[in-house]
Amino acid sequence: MGSDPLEDLRAQLAEKVTFNPYILETHGRCESYPEARPPLAVVFAESVQDVQLVLAWASTHHIAVIPFGAGTSLEAQLLPQGSAISLDLSRLNRLLELRPQDFLAVVEAGLTYPALTRALERHGLFFPVDPGAEATLGGMAATNASGTTTIRYGGMRQNVLALEVVLASGEVLQVGRPVQKTSSGYDLKDLFIGSEGTLGVITKLTVRLHPRPVHVHTIRAVFPNLDATVEGATLILASGLPVARLEMVDELGMRAVNRYLNRTYPESPALFLEFHSGTAAAIGEESREVQGLLDAAGALSVDIARTPLERDAQWEARHKLYWALIALFPGCSYMITDTAVPLTRLPEMVTQAQRLLADMDLPGSIVGHVGEGNFHTLVAVAPADYPRAEQFAERVAEAAVRLGGTISGEHGVGLRKRRLLHLEHGPAVEWMRRVKDLFDPQGILNPGKIF
Question: Fewer Cβ atoms within 10 A, N terminus or C terminus of the chain?
Answer without folding.
Answer: N
